[in-house]
Design goal:
Blueprint (H helix, E strand, L loop, with lengths): L6 H9 L9 H17 L4 H12 L5 H17 L1 H23 L26
Helix pairs in contact: 1-2, 1-4, 1-5, 2-5, 3-4, 4-5
Length: 129
């Protein structure tokens, strides 16, 4: 069972915009959209805009500012369910992309010998000639 997508999860994903290499290339555009949606929503609100600027300046490492924005974001979700659903949809896409990239394994055979474990076929040799 997956955890619910809360304001804290959404804000944490959006803050990844400032952490180099935190998100894969595929998720970068979605994270950018998520951050821009949040920033645009609170552009006219001085204190929240200042907290967002602090988060950006600290490259996502501003716990106090993150907590303040999370509180405001939760209140905004109560007022506007469409906004909440839009952000949750973006967050879900980002999570899926990140989970896919983490679960993919790269199997490379750098040596001359290879051991086939799943469904071996043909003349299998291990070691020497």
């Amino acid at each position: 069972m997956t955890e619910p997508i809360t304001a804290a999860v959404i804000l944490g994903l959006a803050a990844q915009k400032f952490a180099e290499g935190a998100a894969g290339k595929a998720a970068e555009k979605l994270i950018e959209r998520l951050w821009e949606s949040i920033a645009a929503r609170f552009a006219g609100r001085k204190k929240t805009a200042e907290n967002l600027a602090t988060i950006a300046a600290e490259k996502g490492e501003a716990p106090a500012a993150l907590k303040q924005v999370e509180t405001v974001l939760e209140a905004e979700f109560v007022e506007d369910e469409e906004f909440q659903q839009a952000l949750q949809g973006l967050a879900q896409q980002i999570i899926q992309i990140q989970n896919q990239s983490q679960s993919q394994s790269n199997y490379t055979n750098y040596g001359r010998d290879q051991i086939v474990i799943n469904q071996p076929t043909g003349d299998l040799k291990i070691g020497g000639s």
